[in-house]
Amino acid sequence: MVEKTLALVKPDGVEGNHVGEILNDYEQAGLKILALKMIHVNKEFARQHYIDLKDKPFYQELVDFISRSPLVAMILEGENAVDTVRRVNGATDPSEAVEGTIRFKYGGGKTDNTVHGSDSVEHAKREISMWFPEFLDSYLND
Predict the structure, then answer these.
(1) Catalytic residue positions?
(2) What CATH number does residue 108 fall under?
(3) Which of 6, 53, 124, 125 is such that its CA lies 20 to 30 A from the CA of 135?
(4) Which ranges of the chain does DSSP label H, i.e. alpha helix?
(5) Chain segment 5-31, per-residue pLDDT in tens
């Protein structure tokens, strides 16, 4: 099934100059980039992005990290895009990631793990609507 999902190259990936390699990894996995932008989000936006984790002890660390400097947000499309992005990204903890995955190659820890991918089609729709409100009509209503 063709799906759309959100992926982020987090601040550590941008700071480490890995954006091009990461985009290539997604394209090599058969995903198409439908939208792409670099943005520096504020803490309130970051809080909303991670709202599902607000009761976790690491919530504020995530908010601080993702809002510290610019990141790259994108909408990706492809067969089983949600699962494909999560497979290409690798385990949340880079020390547990499979060799060749983005987090294995570039991740520094559980928070500074270079990338984010939506964990379900439902969350992808919510995240796309947050990060790309300008594309709602064309990307979410098909």
Answers:
(1) 116
(2) 3.30.70.141
(3) 53
(4) 11-15, 19-28, 43-49, 59-66, 81-89, 102-106, 121-131, 136-140
(5) 999 999 999 999 999 999 999 999 999
